[in-house]
Amino acid sequence: MAYRTSLDGQQRILDHLAESVFQLSDEEILDEVRESGVDPQEEADRTSVVLRQAVDTWESENERLSNLGHTINPNYWRSGQRSYHNNCLNCGASVSFSTTTQRMEGNALDGSCPDNGYTTKKREASR
Questions:
Q1: pLDDT in tens, 53-78
Q2: Structural domain boundaries of the chain?
């Protein structure tokens, strides 16, 4: 039987891996990348593209929420299982952002914020 880690266990492992990377100097990180046979500049460029795509998606989805009249406090994002969660400050509608799929979901995207008086329809907001 294969060993499986729960989602909480996976998150703890990822947190520990990230912490161990933060403790390394830049030179130590470059040495490890070189030892793996990967060109450090190519890996940096690839990582930059992936992060830029995530940021672009994040900004686009936040603009979509704003166009629907929802107000999301950027400091209130909470980490959950495989995604981050937040709520509209006006109506309480939920929204989540998955870093894996780079998508936002939740009932805040179903339509206009009723507490803001916006009349935008879902179809119009998703363009």
A1: 888 887 888 888 889 999 988 888 88
A2: 41-125
Tell me how far apart the alpha carbons of residues 97 and 110 are, in angstroms, rounded to a whole number: 15
**DSSP code at position 122:** H
124, 115 contact by CB (below 8 A) = no
User: Which of 69, 72, 70 shows the shortest CA–CA distance to 118?
Assistant: 69
| Residue scoring higher pLDDT (27 or 127) | 27
Determine the 3-state secondary structure of 87 from DSSP: strand
DSSP codes joined into one string, 20-58: HHHTS-HHHHHHHHHHTT--HHHHHHHHHHHHHHHHHHH
Phi, psi dihedrals of residue 117, rounded to the nearest 5° = 75, 15
